[in-house]
Design goal:
The structure holds two protein chains of two kinds. By secondary structure, chain A is α+β, with helices and mostly antiparallel strands. Chain A is built from eight helices and 26 strands. The model of chain A has no long low-confidence stretch (mean pLDDT 96). Classes of the chains: A alpha+beta, B alpha+beta.
């Protein structure tokens, strides 16, 4: 029953494609069997909406008269990178405001731009013969910018840790406030809707895949940073720990504040919820089998964030169904759970991507290059070396 | 019967007086302490819910004020801005009395104010700053 990418795209173009979200597809497979579901459905849509710290935007401001080669750049008092060409910059979501700290950061500037608000641009420069201006103080909106696009080095983590805290004091982490003595557990994945959990061995998601990024059509640009296919996997080949990642690119001007939300995580800093959705073609029954997995079939590993080392001890595994129930058992103790990744938003993204394919005939693209495959690479630690040792 | 929420500020010299005992014994009020931060010789704060008849309530408040306490009847309120909320659920992880929970099916945030003890843990935890304390 194998289907080709071209066949599926022809059906999308003619308006005949059958598109289900990952949740709908799992329900269909449970009702009618995997073979029937695989035969009937052409594309399955996925979605995730969690804090993704490795995100940011490339901006071009245009040239003032006289022109300036911006060296020190701030947008609403949030520093942006000045090491590019004269009026190009990169603004990362975790950069805190020099004035307001973590309450307002790069992510908030991006959300303000998305909401059509004017942002104060201040920059300085030593001045050169070709760029004589040394100071600029002005206001810009998203419409004013020549180019504004996301380039997010690491999004859509394939699985993530479940965090607990065994110490006697509360810990403020990127996974939220962890209450002492295993007082709670937090987790961050869309589970059965998560893009890379639906294509666990990166068969269909690769460089050039056309995807949904914060409400805009975009692309997988490269493997994400820390992409680590070499990790523990379950019987279905699905990672049980953080594994693959995606670097993504998309036009900020087509994005929506409904799918990009600035965040301040207590005691940690600024980040941004980024909505990512990936369409997955139902090429054969192998991919259909992983598309049909539910939260009951997917597992995450519990880590003790009370141990402040790179390798934190694992305290067992739980399914996403257990996590969603609101309570898990860790070391014999009942522990309440709380997510960080929004399931209602993930569902909205999968539904919106489905609408794009059905109504706007959004074509899917075969990867131009596969992501590093299972067995090809693992993640290296950083060694601390002295100059003398080199 | 009246049920009201009070925000009490204790001056340092009053912090060890058993005023709540008198609300029960002398004024027939039922206090439910939601939150208290009382230390010897320091200014303290207590948020409590008081149930009783109207006259007893008025007399009880007058008694508290006569003891040097500052009584704020329009006690602070936890407000959820659903426009800002993205239903991430992070607040539910720190809400001990389960006033903030996720709907089992929709996984959207549900706020049951009757269970709230005004500990403000959610105000700090909310990454969207969608939960605020209003006065």
């Amino acid at each position: 029953m194998a289907k080709s990418w071209d066949e599926i795209n022809a059906r999308i173009a003619s308006g005949e494609a059958v598109v289900f979200t990952a949740e709908e597809f799992a329900a269909l497979a449970a009702d009618e069997g995997l073979s029937a579901a695989a035969k009937r459905v052409d594309v399955v849509t996925t979605g995730t909406f969690g804090p993704m710290c490795s995100s940011g935007v490339v901006l071009n401001f245009g040239h003032s008269d006289p022109p300036i080669r911006m060296a020190e750049i701030a947008l609403n008092d949030v520093a942006a990178y000045g090491g590019l060409a004269a009026v190009d910059t990169y603004l990362g979501v975790t950069e805190p405001s020099r004035v307001r700290g973590a309450e307002y950061g790069g992510a908030h500037v991006i959300e303000d731009l998305l909401r059509g608000r004017a942002v104060r641009l201040r920059a300085s420069s030593p001045g050169t013969d070709c760029y004589p201006r040394t100071e600029i103080d002005t206001w810009v909106t998203l419409d004013d910018l020549n180019q504004a696009y996301f380039f997010n080095p690491r999004n859509a983590y394939q699985n993530y840790a479940v965090a607990v805290n065994s110490t006697d004091r509360a810990l403020y982490t990127y996974l939220g406030t962890l209450l002492p003595r295993l007082g709670n557990a937090t987790y961050c994945s869309a589970g059965a809707l998560s893009p890379l959990l639906n294509d666990p061995t990166y068969r269909t998601i690769g460089v050039g895949s056309r995807i949904f990024v914060a409400g805009a059509p975009g692309y997988v640009a490269w493997e994400g940073t820390q992409h680590n296919p070499h990790t523990d996997r379950d019987a279905n080949g699905v990672p049980v720990r953080p594994a693959g990642t995606l670097a993504v690119i998309a036009d900020l001007k087509q994005a929506s504040p409904d799918f990009f939300s600035a965040a301040t995580i207590a005691g940690y800093g600024t980040s941004a919820f980024v909505g990512i959705g990936v369409p997955i073609p139902v090429l054969d029954e192998d991919i259909a089998a992983t598309l049909a997995l539910t939260d009951a079939d997917l597992t995450a590993t519990i880590y003790d964030y009370g141990v402040q080392h790179r390798s934190r001890p694992a305290l067992g595994t739980v399914t996403f169904e257990q996590l969603r129930s609101g309570e898990i058992e860790v070391s014999g103790k009942k522990v309440p759970t709380g997510p960080i990744s929004s399931l209602p938003k993930a569902r909205a993204i999968a539904a919106e991507l489905k609408r794009w394919i059905l109504e706007e005939r959004f074509a899917i693209t075969q990867p131009l290059q596969l992501l590093p495959q299972v067995g090809s690479q693992s993640q290296k630690p950083l060694q601390i070396k002295t100059g003398e040792a080199i | 019967m009246a049920r009201k929420r009070l925000d009490l500020t204790f001056p340092p010299q009053q912090s060890l007086k058993p005023v709540i005992y008198h609300l029960v014994k002398d004024y027939d009020l039922v206090p439910n302490i939601l939150r208290a931060q009382i230390h010897p010789a320091q200014e303290g704060r207590m948020v409590l819910e008081v149930t009783g008849n109207k006259e007893s309530y008025a007399a009880g408040v007058a008694f508290l004020e006569s003891q040097g306490l500052t009584v704020n009847e329009a006690a602070s309120d936890i407000v959820l801005d659903s426009e800002k909320c993205v239903d991430c659920g992070l607040c539910t992880a720190v809400c001990k009395p389960d006033a903030l929970t996720l709907d089992p099916e929709a996984q959207t945030l549900v706020f049951d104010k009757d269970k709230c003890v005004y500990c403000e843990a959610c105000v700090i935890a909310c990454p969207r700053r969608a939960i605020t304390l209003s006065f």
